[in-house]
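Recap from last week: sequence in, structure out.
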Amino acid sequence: MHIRRYQSEDEQAVVSLWERCALTRSWNDPRRDIARKLTVQSELFLVGVLDGTLVASVMAGYEGHRGWINYLAVSPSCRGRGFGRALMDRAEEGLLAMGCPKINLQVRTTNTEALAFYKSIGFVVDETVSMGKRLIPDD
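Predicted structure tokens:
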């Protein structure tokens, strides 16, 4: 798998990947999420391409205190081949180069496959409560 920065022509393939991986929700417009990401550290929006097909993605970011991972996705037909780990390695390299001391991410408690993956690459459950407040509705 070749890892590169997201390009505008990747939009439909990325949205389709996120839908196949059950990452989209009705209250988050994935196209708006992409547009927003392209305005902030777009170099940390990475995709993985295999034989000309986009099969993986990750959005990373650093806000000066913590790094964040969003939309890590690997096509179900390509899982178990190290693609998620490779994308995370590249995202971590980019964050570390920015001076990022720690990475946070959020996983739905029902996503046991993702939880097992993140634990396998060194993530631990922090004793915190995730809270959110929507400032701009996507609907």
